[in-house]
Design a protein that fits this description.
Layout lengths: L3 E4 L2 E4 L10 H5 L2 E9 L2 E2 L2 H14 L6 H4 L1 H12 L4 E8 L17 E8 L5 H6 L1 E7 L14 H12 L4 E5 L5 E4 L3 E6 L2 E3 L11 H12 L4 E2 L5 H5 L3 E6 L3 E8 L2 E2 L7 H13 L4
Parallel strand pairs: 7-8, 7-14, 11-12
Antiparallel strand pairs: 1-2, 1-6, 3-4, 3-5, 5-6, 8-9, 10-11, 10-13, 13-14, 14-15
Helix pairs in contact: 7-9
Bound molecules: N-(5'-phosphopyridoxyl)-D-alanine (PDD).
The site of N-(5'-phosphopyridoxyl)-D-alanine has 15 residues, from helix 7 and strand 13.
Length: about 280
């Protein structure tokens, strides 16, 4: 099955897809993105992903009406063309191609809209059973982390630190010693039976999986506090877990080498993962 790209109206094999070096996404990271996974071949939580894309576009004054553009129909067409059992769809919209000047192009240009369709390779089951180790690093990001911007330098530097340490993820710690989120995941801890995670706002991405897990916790009658929590309290928590489109719900067993709780995947993370798998139709 071919990996496929969509570029400004046309589908093509991934390796045939190119954009201009004067694209503002390439020059300035002037763009936004989404990552959508399929379950049972259907894009999961597409309405929520499109709502967030819309809000990211609006925040950057990037004039693309994704509904008038027919983005959903094009995404479905790409899924059909690529023909994978399960697909990871990457969507990126930039302000388009214009001579390199920092301000927006005076003569409006069409945004660049690209998508890629790749086979989804889910993480190995034993990772979910055993849990993963994470490190911590200062949160060096800007003050609008709620925008899903393609400008990801602090995130990739943090993830690289994790990779070099042999860890799965880097938790980002703000100037007040509070855990915001992972470099590409949301993060939760469980203290005295209550799930704690940073509140939505400019310091975190409003993660779709975070929203789903909080809704599932509500249904399972597990208390939730959307409040900031310090790294010390994360390290002293009974459980810690990550969430994200590519990560799903992943238990964390060590932070900076310090075991969390009993040093193994905890019951609330397992219950939420089971509920999530049921929600996406895998269980
Ligand atoms: N990352 N926090 C950050 C900083 C992220 O980049 C992501 C997703 C998440 C989880 O969000 P969601 O549940 O909507 O996937 C949280 C994507 C997958 C990526 O950059 O590849």
């Amino acid at each position: 099955m071919p990996e496929i790209a969509y570029v400004n109206g046309g589908f093509m094999p991934l390796e045939k897809a190119f954009i201009s070096i004067e694209d503002r996404g390439f020059q300035f990271a002037d763009g936004v993105y989404e990552v959508v996974a399929t379950y049972g071949g259907e894009p999961y939580a597409l309405a929520a992903h499109f709502a967030r894309l819309d809000s990211s576009l609006n925040a950057l004054d990037l004039a693309l009406d994704i509904h008038a553009y027919g983005l959903q129909a094009k995404l479905m067409e790409g899924l059909a063309l690529s023909g994978f059992g399960e697909t990871m769809v990457y969507i990126q919209v930039t302000r388009g191609v214009a001579p390199r000047r920092h301000e927006f192009p005076v003569k409006p240009v069409a945004p660049t809209v690209i998508m890629t369709f790749k086979e989804a390779h889910r993480l190995p089951q034993d990772m979910y059973q055993h849990g993963v180790e994470v490190i911590t690093t200062p949160d060096l990001r800007w003050k609008r982390c709620d925008i899903k911007s393609i400008s990801l330098l602090p995130n990739i530097l943090a993830k690289q630190q994790a990779a070099q340490a042999g860890a799965f993820e880097a938790l980002l710690i703000d100037a007040d010693g509070q855990v915001t989120e992972g470099s590409s995941t949301s993060v939760f801890c469980v203290r005295s039976g209550c799930i704690r995670t940073a509140p939505t706002g400019p310091h975190i991405l409003p993660s779709i999986t975070r929203g789903v897990l909080l809704e599932l916790a509500h249904r399972l009658e597990i208390p939730v506090a959307e409040e900031f929590t310090t790294l010390a309290d994360f390290k002293g928590a009974d459980e810690v877990f990550l969430a994200g489109t590519t990560t799903e719900a992943m238990p964390v067993i060590k932070i900076d080498g310090d075991p969390i709780g009993e040093g193994r995947s905890g019951p609330i993370a397992q219950r939420l993962r089971a509920a999530f798998m049921q929600e996406v139709g895998i269980a």
